[in-house]
TrEMBL record:
Listed name of the protein: DoxX protein
Species the sequence originates in: Robiginitalea myxolifaciens
Alphabetized UniProt keyword annotations: Membrane, Transmembrane, Transmembrane helix
Record field: transmembrane: 50-77, 84-105, 111-129
Amino acid sequence: MGTLMELPQLVLLLFVTITFLQSGLDKVFDWKGNVSWLSSHFSKTFLGAMVPLLLAVITLAEIATGICAIIGIYGWFTGSYMNFALYAGFGSCITLLMLLFGQRVAKDYDGARTIVIYLVPCVLLLILAG
């Protein structure tokens, strides 16, 4: 089991689990709605024609990150699988950087700013787990 000094890592793993699994599963269960909205969002960019492929990549990255976080939570309690906290931190940062890139390309600066808010705790998880 993790120590009290490692409690922030557990909280951040819970944050990553909730954030990325919810987002990934939303994309799975509302695929058409997400493709429709994103196709419109990126219609005037070079990414417009690639929305379904890019959405699939982001969806897989989000779900994989959430699963790594769940395994990391299990590892926090059992003292095993601690590398999965690091994988969750790295996966969350890479996924958010992909999303940030898309928002910047779409010139959605408010959306990009929101992603940076999510990036801060993910970088902190990466530091704590590393």
